[in-house]
Amino acid sequence: MRSRQILSACALSAAWCLSASPVRADAPAGGAAAGVEGDHVIRDFHFASGESLPELRLHYTVIGKPRRDSHGRVSNAVLILHGTGGSGRSLLNEHFAGVLFGKGQLLDASRYFIILPDGIGHGKSSKPSDGLHARFPQYSYADMVAAQHALVLQGLQVDHLRLVMGTSMGCMHTFMWGEAFPDFADALMPLACLPVQIAGRNRLWRNLILQAIRSDPEWLQGEYKSEPLGALRTAAGLLMIAGSAPIQMQIALPTRDAADQFLEKFMQRELAELDANDLLYQVGASRDYDPAPGLESIKVPLWQINSADDFINPPDLGIAEREIKRVKNGHFVLLPASDQTHGHGTHTWAAVWQQYLAQLLQASQPPPD
Predict the structure, then answer these.
(1) Is 22 exposed, middle or buried (0-12, 13-18, 19+ CB in 10 A)?
(2) Tell me, what's the pLDDT at 368?
(3) In this structure, which of 174, 181, 242, 274 has its CB flanked by the most CB atoms within 10 Å?
(4) What's the chain's average pLDDT?
């Protein structure tokens, strides 16, 4: 399983990492309970494209145990959705799980049942590199959310969620959950995205990645014997810049030699791990995302958090401030850029925004059973 999130946790630090290393299943982060991994297989899964798979595998990690209220409904489940190129376990790092899941923390794993799925095409879930390559169904975000719902409801027997929270791609999925299943969760917390279709510069850099892969003669329509390295160098570079934080980069790379050395090490690592077909599908899945028409249908409290140094969702556009007014119980927070933020990857540094999670949990507290 790919161990890093390039896009979803691209937070360059002085440690020269783009994301924190995930924690082993037997090594809890920050005191969080150890995770248990499993697979849910959905038979005869039909995609929005009209394609289907006889079996779709959704891998997941769960932490804690579900609890039911007097009516038999699960009352403590939290669904957390990762970003592009990541996996559920990629959030088990010191900056995210280590701040949230430990004893006495906001999502204390001894109190909550935490669900961390691998989205379609990611982690250990079904994906092109399993063998179908470019014949794998052209999944979209709608398919990913539908599969997540099936995992939660049918696979884990969870009929209600206390919270849905997501980072980057998972942020966009969180908006979609609020619209598709308006009564399923008590609260929503999307981190680092916009609730409109992907257009402008955001769509352009994504399309550059897709074009780089498809136009590389070594790609061979997805049937390559070795990775098309030229395309992957372009893709990795675009993903690095899109997820970068100017202040953090300047702190970590204060000289030209430091920057050059970092780039060389970065490329060596990423080229050893990327799969062209998987990346093509992961980036392409955002092609028809657009929750804007349904924002008024979101019923529950929603706290959206973005950071001012996010290249992918620049605050200059004013989109988040405009669209949040259409969400009945919506709130938007823009974190100012500082040496504490990490560009787009700020979503994974929970210490920066956990106060707003605390407010959301308080505002959405269900009445006593």
Answers:
(1) buried
(2) 77
(3) 174
(4) 91
Helices 229-242 & 276-284 angle (0-180, nearest 10): 40
Residue with tokens 């349904």: 294
The one-letter amino acid at 334:
L
CB-based contact 18:11 (threshold 8 Å): yes
Report pLDDT digits (tens) over 287-333: 999 999 999 999 999 999 999 999 999 999 999 999 999 999 999 99
CB count within 10 Å of CB 41 equals 13
Q: Running DSSP on this structure, what letter comes out for residue 225?
A: S
Inter-residue contact 60 to 40 (CB < 8 Å): yes
Looking at the DSSP bridge assignments, the partners of residue 36 are: 62
With b for 16 or more beta-carbon neighbours within 10 A and e for fewer, the 110-125 pattern comes to ebbbbbbbbbbbbbbb
Residue 86 covered by a domain: yes
Query: Which DSSP string corresponds to 233-261?
Result: HHHHHHHHHHT--HHHHHHH--SHHHHHH
In a domain, 131, yes or no: yes
Q: What is the pLDDT of residues 127-144, one digit of tens each?
A: 999 999 999 999 999 999
Q: Would you call 239 exposed, middle or buried from its count of C-beta atoms within 10 A (0-12, 13-18, 19+)?
A: buried
Burial of 173 (0-12, 13-18, 19+ CB in 10 A): buried
- Report whether 86 contacts 39 (CB < 8 A): no
Per the CB < 8 A criterion, the answer to whether 319 and 292 are in contact is no
Nearest by Cα to 130 from 55, 208, 50, 195: 55
Q: How many domains does the chain have?
A: 1
Q: How far is residue 32's CA from residue 201's CA, in Å, rounded to a whole number?
A: 38
Domain that holds residue 47: 36-199+288-363
- List the structure tokens of 199: 């257009």
Domain of residue 328, CATH code: 3.40.50.1820
**Phi, psi at 199, each rounded to 5°:** -140, -170
Neighbouring residues of 166: CB distance < 8 A, sequence distance ≥ 6: 80, 81, 82, 83, 172, 173, 174, 189, 190, 191
Tokens of 229: 């390295």
In a domain, 353, yes or no: yes
Please state the rounded mean pLDDT for residues 237-249.
93
d(CA 186, CA 193): 20
